[in-house]
Amino acid sequence: MSAAETLAGEALDPLDPRYRTVLRLGSLVAALPLLVAAVVADAVLSSRFDFAFGAIASGIALLLISWVLVSPARRFNAWGYRLDGDELNVARGVLTRTHSIVPLQRVQHIDVGQGAIARRFGLAELVVHTAGTHGAAVTIPGLALPEAERLRDEIRLHIRREAE
């Protein structure tokens, strides 16, 4: 069951589908140095010992292909969010599931940010900083930029109404 499907019986909003591609690109960038290291290990072992070149790299390549193709989809499906009245609900996590409920009256400030890859895909992340613990923040990555701005503006309006 994905985080976007249900949370206490209520449907959560999924992240933008383009975020799967961003996650795959990030996994690919992380996988390349590991593959290069495996090829170098193969070259060293095959030149010094009676060792078949490609034995290590092919096994590592299969693992990395699975990591690049499967892991991002699972991580994407593990996210869900919903802005409901006076709270923001965020569910995330593949191995360790976390469900955060942020009361909007505790919000100190809100950031909308874009990394280089996400910006190319028109995506952003919403970071909601809360009162209380130093550095307490809830982040929702993989939002379409207009959706991140809409959530920011809606939270900001709620804060202004509470202050009046």
TrEMBL record:
<dbReference type="Pfam" id="PF03703">
    <property type="entry name" value="bPH_2"/>
</dbReference>
<feature type="transmembrane region" description="Helical">
    <location>
        <begin position="25"/>
        <end position="45"/>
    </location>
</feature>
<dbReference type="InterPro" id="IPR005182">
    <property type="entry name" value="YdbS-like_PH"/>
</dbReference>
<protein>
    <recommendedName>
        <fullName>YdbS-like PH domain-containing protein</fullName>
    </recommendedName>
</protein>
<feature type="domain" description="YdbS-like PH">
    <location>
        <begin position="78"/>
        <end position="155"/>
    </location>
</feature>
<keyword id="KW-0812">Transmembrane</keyword>
<keyword id="KW-0472">Membrane</keyword>
<feature type="transmembrane region" description="Helical">
    <location>
        <begin position="51"/>
        <end position="70"/>
    </location>
</feature>
<keyword id="KW-1133">Transmembrane helix</keyword>
